[in-house]
Design a protein that fits this description.
alpha+beta; two-stranded antiparallel sheet; 2 helices; 64 residues; 4 strands
């Protein structure tokens, strides 16, 4: 089972070809942006402000 990482979703495994196709479709629509949390340049969706790491940290109540 292939494992993937991106700044939208973090680490995950993909089991079906439909999910692999979805993953690559979403990758094509990413843009290079500065994360509002950590300041890193990341490839995320145009309407996202935080990378996955900062979003996870915020969900756990941490500062970003």
């Amino acid at each position: 089972m292939p494992s993937y990482y991106d700044d939208n979703y973090g680490h995950y495994s993909i089991e079906s070809q439909d999910d692999v196709d979805f993953y690559f479709e979403r990758q094509r629509t990413n843009v290079l942006k500065k994360c509002s949390g950590c300041g890193r340049k990341v490839r995320i969706q145009p309407d996202y402000a935080l990378c996955n790491a900062c979003a996870d940290r915020a969900e756990r109540g941490g500062d970003y």
